[in-house]
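Q: Here's a chain of 380 amino acids. Please give me its 3D structure as C-alpha cells.
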Amino acid sequence: MRLRNTETGAVQPLEPTYDPIRVYVCGITPYDTTHLGHAFTYVAFDVLVRTMRASGQAVRYVQNVTDVDDDIIRRAREVGTTWDKLAAKETALYEADMAALNVRPPDVFPRASQTIPKIIVLVRKLEAQGHAYQREGNVYFRVGSITDYGRLSRLSREEMITLSAQRGADPNDPRKQDPLDFILWQKSGPGEPHWESPWSEGRPGWHIECSAMALEHLGPQLDVHGGGSDLIFPHHESEIAQSESVTGVRPFARIWVHTGMLRYHGEKMSKSLHNLVLIGDLLRRYDGDSIRVLVLRHHYREPWEYTPDQLEDAAGWTQRLRQAARGAGDRTGDSRRAVLAALEDDLDTPRALGLLEDAVTGGDAGWRGAADLLGLRLRA
C-alpha cells in the first residue's frame, strides 16, 4: 500500500509498525449532517480500510464524533434544543446515511463528551511539562515551547495567524502569550456544557479532544491519521504539537492522509456557507451505489466541484453496470487482484472503477470481489 503523506509531500509505502494497523480519522461535528463532502471523505476512508483488510492486514479503525463544540452550542440555541440532544440526533442521522452508502462503521466511534477525564489528565500533564499555561480559567498550549509548529502545513507564521482566525481561534485574545497559542480548556458561560476541572467549570478545546480519543483508543503513535484537507491547519498541526509533547513519541502519525475539498456553486461545501447537498435528499432520488460511484470517480486528494449532472451520469453508469452484471459470464479472471492493485496505489479509485467495468462487461465471474473492495453492491 502506497499513500501520499501530507507531512512529507511524498507518496510512500505504508509500512505498518503495529498489528493491527492503527487508523484514526477525524469525524463529524454533529449539528447539520450529512452532506456530500462528508460522503467524499468517509467513503474514501471506508475503501482504504477495505483495501488494507483485503490485503490480509488487521486494522483498528477509530473515527471520532466532536460533540462538544461551539458550533453545536450555537445551533442548539437556534433550534431550541440542548447541545447533547442535537448532537445525538445528528450523529444518528449520520450513521444511517453512512449505512445507506454501505460505509462500514469504524471499530470504535468515541464521543468527545465521553472523553473528558482523559482530556483533563492530558491538559494537566502539558501544564506540568511547561507546554501549557492557565489564564482566568482558560488553559492554552504554549506554541513557543516546541520548535517545529507548522511542519505539517508548511505555512508561515503570518499565514497561520490569519488562517487560525478564519477557523475559529482568536489570535487577539489578550490572555494569550502568543497569537498562535491555542485553547486546551475554556471556561464555560451560562447555559453552556461544562465539567469540573482544576481550572474552571468548562469544556475542552477542539484539538485536545482528538488527541485524547486517539491516544486512548490507539496509543501514542498512529499508522494513518486522516481527515479533510481543511483540517491540516490548525487542527492537525495542533494535534501533533500537543500529542508529541505529552507522550514524547515522534511522529504522532506516520502517514497523514487528507481528502480534497468539495465545492458547490463556486464555494467550498460547508455548513457555514449554507450550500450543502445533503445525503438524505440525494437518497430520495438515487441509490447508495450511485452516490458512491459519484465520489469514487474522483481521486481522494482531488478538489472538485459538484454539479447535479455528475450524479445523473454516475447513476446511469451504475445502472448499466448492474444490468451487465446480471448476465455476467463465468470466465475466471483476475479483476479483484487488478482492482486491489489500483487501490494500493494511493487509493486510485477512478482507475479501480474502470477495471471493475471491464470485468463486468467482459464476463469475469470474479467481479463481485472487485465490487466489494469498492463497497458497491450492484444489486438489482
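Q: Can you summarize the key feature?
A: The longest strand covers residues 222-228.
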